[in-house]
Design goal:
Belongs to the bacterial solute-binding protein ModA family. The protein has about 280 residues and is an alpha/beta fold. It has 9 helices and 10 strands.
């Protein structure tokens, strides 16, 4: 082979080697890019997953009408189980007193009232965040002594002489509802006492300090065999809507929203209806 031929052959071999090497380098670069992309995607996915798994924590403070005590206590326990690391604290009482406390600056995250009228105290003061929503309704029932020894069968029977009857204060939703029911039946009733909330009125009967009290159906249900309930038609004219709202001054907004969601959920509604509340 001539010297010229050998030089040409050597040159072709060198070019081929460089082409193969170049192709290999390109392949490595492509693999590196894919790996980098996968790592970036994985990091983004992990970051997203981490962000979506943020857990609720802290205390959720709920101000609620006295008639919600049993059902909300149950829901509070369920909330704490579903969200480890959280705690739900309650302040139960007359809705008017709770509303006054809120507008006076008492710290709370959620307010559940037994009437739109008492909720309006909070919204008018600008202390509600958003529009209150009705989550349940409630109606009245007569609570009598066990066995109903006075044979009370109607609202009119409470007007009879000799009976010690207790009502909620007129400023409290259960008292306002009782007045509305009495007006519907064109009845006049002078109670032996007006109580600050529905639980206080019911306790008078449980302790046998009164013969009867006009309270909510849910409270008669919660009392079990300590009292006996008597339904009356005038209660249909005095059904109370219960609104709930997150408060503007809430310290735990995420916890408050989660509690509101539980109350409105199918699980929450089941607890409430089993307690005797009516669906909104």
């Amino acid at each position: 082979m001539t010297r010229t031929a050998r030089r040409i052959r050597h040159t072709r071999h060198t070019r081929r080697t460089l082409q193969v090497a170049g192709a290999g380098a390109a392949a490595l670069l492509a693999l590196s890019a894919c790996s980098s992309s996968d790592d970036s995607s994985s990091t983004t996915s992990d970051s997203s997953a981490s962000g979506s798994s943020d857990k609720l924590s802290g205390t959720v403070t709920v101000f609620a009408a006295a008639s919600l005590k049993e059902s909300f206590t149950t829901l509070g326990e369920e909330f704490e189980k579903e969200h480890p690391g959280t705690k739900v604290t309650f302040s139960f009482g007359g809705s008017d007193s709770l509303a006054a406390s809120i507008t006076g600056g008492a710290p709370a995250d959620v307010f559940a009232s037994a009437s739109p009228k008492t909720m309006k105290i909070v919204t008018d003061a600008g202390d509600a965040s958003g529009t209150p929503a009705t989550f349940v309704r409630n109606k009245l029932e007569i609570a009598t002594l066990p066995g109903n020894p006075h044979k009370i069968s109607s609202l009119k029977d409470l007007t009879g002489s000799g009976l010690k009857v207790v009502l909620c204060d007129k400023e409290v939703p259960c008292g306002a509802a009782a007045e509305k029911a009495l007006d519907a039946g064109r009845l006049k009733l002078t109670p032996v006492s007006y109580e600050q909330d529905v639980k206080a009125a019911l306790t008078k009967v449980e302790l046998k300090e009164a013969d009867a009290a006009v309270v909510y159906k849910t409270d008669v249900h919660a009392a079990g065999d300590k009292v006996e309930g008597v339904e009356f038609p005038e209660s249909d004219d005095a059904v109370n809507d219960y609104p709930i709202v997150r408060l503007k001054s809430a310290q735990n907004t995420e916890g408050a929203e989660a509690f509101l969601a539980l109350v409105r959920s199918a699980e929450g509604q089941q607890v409430l209806t089993e307690a005797g509340f009516l669906k909104p």
